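Hey, resending since the last one bounced:
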Amino acid sequence: MLYRSLGKFGIEVSRIGLGVEHLKGLKRSEVYKIVKTALANGINFFDMVWDLPEITSGISDAVKEKDVKFQIHLGSGSMDGKYLCTRERSECEFYFNSTLNNLGQRSIDIVNLHYIKNLKVWKEIQKKRLIDLALDIKDEGKAKAIGVSTHSSDVVKIAVETGDIDVITYQINLANHGMPGRNEALEICNDYNVGVIAMKPFAGGNLLKTGKTVRIASYQTGGRSQLFKIPLDNSPVKCLSYVLDQTRVSTAIVGFSDILEISQAIKYFTADKEELDYSKILKKLHFQ
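The structure tokens again:
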């Protein structure tokens, strides 16, 4: 496994991280096996977008006494075993502390302002004083850094320019190459020494549907919904190679749902030059 420094606070994260989105619906024992396999392969970064009991308990069992880097989403919670999103300050604080406790952690690395879809939501979290809450969590020593997750380049720009944000989680993949605003968003992160966590590296798995014509949704491209004919020679390795070559990206979080998917992704670290070369894929996707 190879590691990179994430942003100005210098946390060392594995170039491939684990996103828990696709662990939803799995048994606790299955989650445990996937996480243990990830750890055994050097994956040390976990993006906790869900606070679902079977996920947090399975992860907690697997990571005991391990040096794991967590990002907990401020605004993501669960009720009766189902995900919910909230912008209420008291609820956000409650669910953050709940996730922290359920993971068996006293502190984590990143408290992330959850799913800031657009500038309207950005204004809402300002009104609800959620940035202040994140700063309080950081000051209390429960988190080292403050992050924002978004699909909007406009939100990246305004968030970074506040000076309070240390990390941005943003969709980056072969499908949104050249998407208006994307590269500018990465450049401003570079200018402000803000770390970038790349989500949707496979565009929700669509980029791996080789030989098929698929519609990739706007939230997976960060712009408009588009149809793509996925080249037969595309692969998880080429997708990850592209993402990890982009400006400022430290880690790509992958939504593993089984052990096989981990084995396919970590081939990135032993791949030869030809296997890593995504230039032909770009041409086929964007210049057909």
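The chain has one domain: 3-286.

Sorry for the duplicate.
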